[in-house]
Amino acid sequence: MRRKVIAGNWKMNNNLPESENLISKLISGLSTGKNNCDVIICPPFTSLSLAASLIKGSQIKLGAQNMYYEESGAFTGEVSASMLKSAGCEYVILGHSERRTIFGEKDEQINKKIKKALSSGLKPIFCVGETLEEREIGVTNDIIKRQVNEGLSGLSEKDLDTIIIAYEPVWAIGTGKTATPAQAQEVHSFIRSLISGLFSPASAEKMIIQYGGSVKPDNAKELLSQKDIDGALVGGACLKAESFIGIIEAA
Ligand code: PEP
Fold first, then answer.
1. Any catalytic annotation for residue 20?
2. Which of 35, 117, 238, 243 has the smallest number of CB atoms closer than 10 Å to its CB?
3. What is the pTM (predicted TM-score) of this model?
4. Total domains, the chain
5. Residue 191 contacts residue 165 (beta carbons within 8 Å)
6. One digit per residue, pLDDT tens: the chain, 251 residues?
7. 237 CA distance to ligand 1 middle (Å)
8. Residue 134 designated active-site
9. How far apart are CA 181 and CA 200, in angstroms?
10. Top mutation candidate among 234, 243, 244 for ligand 1, by most atoms within 8 Å of CB
C-alpha cells in the first residue's frame, strides 16, 4: 500500500511574515486533526530557512520549487542543491509546467537537475503534463512518454525510490478546471506502465504519483481515491491553511 503525499507549491507568494503566519496556522491545524499523509510545503527560496525552523517537530517537510544543476559558480540568480539542503530542504519540485513554459526549461535540463538533486540527497518531485492543445489533438500519451523517458534517462531503479512523479495537466493548473478522476487515473496508470517498462514492475508498484491541477478540498477525495493517484501537488489551495488542511484530511 503506497502512502499518500500532499505537497503545497506556494509559487511566488508569501513574504517572511506571511510565510510565518501560514506555517503557524498549518502547524496548529494539523496538530488537532488526524491524518496519515506525508505533508510537504514548498515556499519560495527566501522563506525556506524560516520555514525549516518553524516546522521542526511537526509532520511538515520542506521542499523548494526549483534549483540549478551546477554545484556553484557564475550562475547569477540560481540556487544549488547543496544550498537547498543547507536551508533544510528534503524535496525539490523539478520540471514544473511554469518552469517549462515561462522559463523555457527543456527535458534535458530537467534530467540534469533530477540527477543533481539525487546525488545531493534531495528528493525530486518531477512534474509532467500535457497542454490543452496536446490533449485536444490526442497526443497526451506521447508527451507524457517523452517527458518521463527523457526526465528519468540514465537513472537507476534505486534512484526511483526517492522520486515522486506529479502528473499535472497544464490546462488544469490554476484554471479551476480539474481533470476528471477518470481522466487523471488513466494517465496515472499510463505513467505507472511506463515506469514498469523502463525500470521494473516492482519499481512501478512503489512509485508515488501525485495529481496536480486545481485540487481543492471538495474534489480531493474523489481524485485521491483513484487506484493510481497517491497524493496531490497543490497550488492555489495551499495558500490558505484551511483549504490545504481540507485536502490533507480528504486524503
Ligand atoms: C501547481 O502549480 O502545481 C498546481 C497544481 O496549481 P493549482 O493547484 O493552482 O492548479
1. no
2. 35
3. 0.97
4. 1
5. yes
6. 899 999 999 999 999 999 999 999 999 999 877 788 999 999 999 999 999 999 999 999 999 999 999 999 999 999 999 999 999 999 999 999 999 999 999 999 999 999 999 999 999 999 999 999 999 999 999 999 999 999 999 999 999 999 999 999 999 998 888 889 999 999 999 999 999 999 999 999 999 999 999 999 999 999 999 999 999 999 999 999 999 999 999 99
7. 8
8. no
9. 26
10. 234
Atom 8 (ligand 1) nearest CA: 235
Could you identify the atom of ligand 1 that is nearest to the CA of residue 214?
10
Domain with 72, as residue range(s), is 5-250
Question: Between vectors from CA 66 to CA 65 and to CA 72, what angle results, nearest 5°?
Answer: 140
Give the 3-state secondary structure of 204-227.
HHHCEEEEECCCCHHHHHHHHCCC
Q: Ligand 1: which of 10, 40, 91, 214 to mutate, judged by most atoms within 8 Å of the beta carbon?
A: 214
- Please state, in angstroms and rounded to a whole number, the distance separating the CA atoms of residues 181 and 166: 15
| CB 6 near ligand 1, within 6 Å | no
Domain CATH for 69? 3.20.20.70
CA of 236 from ligand 1 middle (Å) equals 6
- What is the dihedral angle through the alpha carbons of 89, 92, 98, 99, rounded to the nearest 10 degrees? 100
